[in-house]
Every structure is written in structure tokens, then in C-alpha cells.
Amino acid sequence: MNRTTVSLIAGTAALAAVTGFATLSSPQAAGTARTAAELPVERTSLLCPVPSTSDIAETSYTSFTPVTKDADSGGKAELQAAAAESDGKSKSKSKGKGKKAGKPVLDPEEPGKPATGETSGGDAPALVGTAEGKFAPGWTVQETTKVAAGSGRGLQGVNCSAPDTEFWFPGASTAADRTDYVHLTNPDDSAAVVDIELYGKDGALDSTLGEGITVAPHSSDPILLSTLTEEKQENLTVHVNVRSGRVGAAVQALDDKLGGDWLAASTDPSGSLVLPGIPKDATSVRLVAFTPSDSDADLKVRLASPSGLITPAGNETLHVKAGMTTSADLGDVTRGEAGSLVLTPTDASVPVVAALRVVRGKGDDQETAFIPATRPVGARATVADNSAKGTTLSLTAPGRAATVKVTASAGSKGGEAVSKTFTLKAGTTENVEAPTPTGLKGTYALTVEHVSGGPVYGARTLVATADGVPGFTIQALPDDRGMVAVPEADQDLSVLQK
After folding, report:
1. Is the pLDDT of residue 27 over 50?
2. R_g of the chain computed on alpha carbons
3. What is the DSSP letter of 309?
4. pLDDT confidence of residue 89
5. Which residues does residue 38 pair with via DSSP β-bridges, in sequence order?
6. Is the pLDDT of residue 76 over 80?
7. Among the listed ranges 20-24, 162-166, 221-225, which one has the minimum average pLDDT value?
8. Phi-psi category of residue 256: left, alpha or beta, with phi > 0 → left and psi -120 to 50 → alpha
């Protein structure tokens, strides 16, 4: 497909997506279920937040579905602007309001080939999308924005995410030089009611303004964190809890001096966490962690390097007090090599969420990105909007050795898919020489498939320059949940309905 330029007129064009999946299970009754079959999901939803309010912002969107065996032959993927009026009960201005959603702003033609679109300026709304049939399994949408000047200047990127009912964001801030927003997007026909809780170094911050925020149907609200509390804290954990309905959520962190990027949600609280893909030229790395448990957590901090697991000098362990946000400055922890952070409990396991703030560059050329703890690649994971130059794929096997297959899709404007296989040693991180499509024109997607061995975690770094300003952004590669377990049964389960 040729690259399509998306013109956002009167603030009505935007791109959103929402990924959902379901697991079917048979009732525990007379029927005896055999081993569950893995089948492709038939419907997936994604949400993309408002990209930027800057008049000089340039945003690109990339939609991609990997080719999946046994997927339906029909179906479609549609991405539209979230476009309902806000009811005025939210705590901030609502974006994407006004006219009802109309014609899709991005319309992929086939799996295996990226569909792309662009917009400029600060009027782009949040986007809502649904993929069905052959477009549903593993559907991914990437939102990438270049901002040449102002707070948060640089490269900002985020994977559009599925709606859910709970999110954790360690690494947010209400410091004087930071402007952080929690973007809440409601894809449904009824209003969602959301609570936002903030936790600092001494525990929960006093605030009633984060309670009962109403997000109108088909709308998106950017909630400025500094309006929820008077306290100025450099390291915060944001907890988004949905009382009714569901939303998509992401934090946009804008720094006056260090640029900015999107902070995606950490994986669910867990005793052990992996934060993959720290750039080898990172000049500053800060770890922010939080436990929602009533008990303190003691974590062993290790770096999975190309040669194996090592312990950062001076940061061997991290003590996380119950209900309090803890941070540790790790400096240039990678020392010029690829690296991923591995957190494990020193004794009893207490669930924790965590994220890294990563800085590259020096002086006026510094830029920031974030790496939240993430799920493993699992069976398959995909990341879109890669280019021939400026893309780094980082893979880590924190436990046992593992083998993966990496496929570069066809290009958005031309080129043929190419695959390569990589074997990762136990406890290591490697910036692999990922393949690029033969005869590449445009951008392409990278799909990582687990072949054998232990769990693998991955992240992709994009590097780009806008009007002489260097920028970078990092996206993790969690399992795409493109397959669903469907149990087989020895009897007609319809009899159970009688």
C-alpha cells in the first residue's frame, strides 16, 4: 500500500486503536474438556492518545497485522477519531470532542504489510479502532511524534493499547520542570468513571480531585497531574483505577530541559520484573519502583549484559517501602554495552511495579525516554514504524538460553519480508542485527517469535532528528495475545443451557 497522508481537518482526524482478547472455557460439568486448542482471536481493539498540543508537532501512525496461520480470510481494521462531546465533569479539557466519528482515518489493506498515515499540528484527537477477522491477531498500531522545540521536544512514541480497568505508572512527576498528563480515552458508548491515585516518597499524596473523574463516551481527557495535588515530587507512581467502564491510559511526560516521551503502563505487579532495552549510550538511568502491598519489598538489582548478569556497583539491592515510591539513580549503568534491568526478590516475593527513565546526550542535546517493566515476548510480539536507519532491536533472555525468529515485514511502500533466527545466551542482552525487507521502501514492522528455550523480553529504540534536535523513543515488545485457548469437548455443551 502506498503511504497515505491523513489530513486532520478542524481537529477531527486522529488515530486510535484498542486490543482485546478472550479465553473461552467450558463449564465444569458432565462434558470432559480435552487439551485446549490455540486459535486466532477474531476481534481486537486499540486506543491511541492525543499525540501533542504543539503547533509544530508532526505525528505518524503505523498499523500492522502479522500474517497468522488459520486466521479468517475476511475482516477489516478501522481507526477513527474519538469524537463525542465531554459532559463537563472531567478535570481537564477534553480532546477529540465534537462531530461523530466518520470515515476511518487509516484503512489497512492486508496483513503482512504496514499501513501508514501522517498529521501535523496540535489538533489531532485521540483515536479508537477495531480489527476483525484476519486483521485481529497481533494487530499493533504505533504513534510517533516529532516536536522540534518547547517542553518535551524530541521524539515521542507509544504503542496504542487495549482498554482496561487498572494501570500503574511508576516514573511520573509533578516537579517544577515537568508537565505530566494522564491521558484517559473511553472507547465505549457509556461514560467511564475513573480514580487517579498518586504515591510519592512518603506514601499517598493528599488529593480529592482525582476521585470520580468522568470520561464521556468516545472521548479522551488529558489530566494534568499538577492539578490533582499541590505537592511537587520528582518521582511519583500513578495508579489509574476504573470504577465503571473501561479506558485506555498512558502518561505523557514533558520536561523543560530533557525533552519528553510517553510512559506506558508497567506490567501487573509481580515479584520479579524485567525492563529491557536500555540504550548502550545512555548517560543517565533512573529506576523508579513501587509496591501496592502492605509489606516492604527487597529486590536484587542486576543488569543483563552481552556477557551475562552483573550487579551494578553501589546498587546491588533496592528496598521498596510499602505504599511508597522508591527511586535509584544508576548513572551510565550500561557502560557502552546493550543492557536490560532484571529485578528479583531477595527472599519472599512482594509484588512490585517499576519503570526506568533513560537519558541520552549531553547539555542542550539531552533527550528522555521511558522503559516500563513488561511481559515477555511469549509466542509472538510485533513493533511497527521501523526504518532502514535509526532502529535498534534489543532482546534479552534473563533465565535460560533461548532461540527466536525475527521477521521484517514488507515495506509500507514496497519490499519483501525477510526473516532471521537468533540464539540468546542465558542471562544476556543483545542488540541484534535485525533484518530489513529486501528492496525496502517506506517503513516496516518487526515481529519476534519464540522458537525454543526460556522466556525472552524485547524492546525497540527509534532514533530520529527533527530540525537538528536529536530524539529517541523506546517501545517494549510484550506478547501480542493474538491466539486464544478454546477447549475441545466430548459432548454438545448446548445441553447445559437447558
Report:
1. no
2. 22
3. E
4. 37
5. 485
6. yes
7. 20-24
8. alpha
Burial class (CB in 10 A: 0-12, 13-18, 19+), 346: middle
- Measured CA to CA, the distance from residue 397 to residue 403 in angstroms comes to 9
Question: What pLDDT was estimated at residue 106?
Answer: 76
pTM: 0.87
Percent of the chain with pLDDT over 70: 85
- Residue 149, SS3 per DSSP: coil
pLDDT attached to residue 220: 94
User: For residue 469, what pLDDT is reported?
Assistant: 67
Strands (DSSP E) found in 82-139: 115-120, 126-132
Cβ-based burial of 230 (10 A; exposed 0-12, middle 13-18, buried ≥19): exposed
User: Which residues, in sequence order, are bridge partners of residue 407?
Assistant: 419, 447
Q: Which amino acid is at 71?
A: A
Name the grid cell of 458.
524485547
Answer yes or no: are the C-beta atoms of 16 and 219 closer than 8 Å: no
pLDDT at 348: 87
Do residues 135 and 79 make contact, with C-beta atoms less than 8 angstroms apart? no
Report the largest interatomic distance among the alpha carbons of the chain, rounded to a whole angstrom: 72
C-alpha separations of 6 from 90, 155, 294 in Å: 29, 20, 49
Task: Give me the pLDDT at residue 489, please.
Answer: 55
Rounded to whole angstroms, how far apart are CA atoms 410 and 444?
Answer: 6
CA distance 322 to 434: 41
Distance between CA atoms of 253 and 171, rounded to whole angstroms? 9
Cα distance between residue 238 and residue 224, in whole Å: 12
Pairing verdict, β 58-64 and 115-120? antiparallel
On the question of pLDDT at 13 being above 90, the answer is: no
The pLDDT assigned to 432 comes to 97
Q: How many CB atoms lie within 10 A of CB 480?
A: 26
Phi-psi label, residue 385: left if phi above 0, alpha if psi -120 to 50, beta otherwise: left
Residue 325 and residue 23: Cα distance in Å, rounded? 34
Residue 303: closest CA among 275, 328, 325: 275
Cell of 113: 504489510
d(CA 304, CA 398): 7
- Using DSSP bridges, classify how beta strands 126-132 and 15-16 pair: parallel, antiparallel or unpaired: parallel
Decide if pLDDT at 15 tops 70.
no
Cα–Cα distance, 62 to 44 (Å, whole number): 16
Do 288 and 354 contact (CB within 8 A), yes or no?
yes
Query: Backbone phi, then psi, for 129, in 5-degree steps?
Result: -150, 155
123's grid cell = 489538533
Angstrom distance (rounded) from CA 357 to CA 352: 17
What are the cell numbers at 83? 469524537
* Percentage of the residues of the chain whose pLDDT score is greater than 90: 73
At residue 150 the predicted structure's pLDDT band, cuts being 50, 70 and 90, is confident
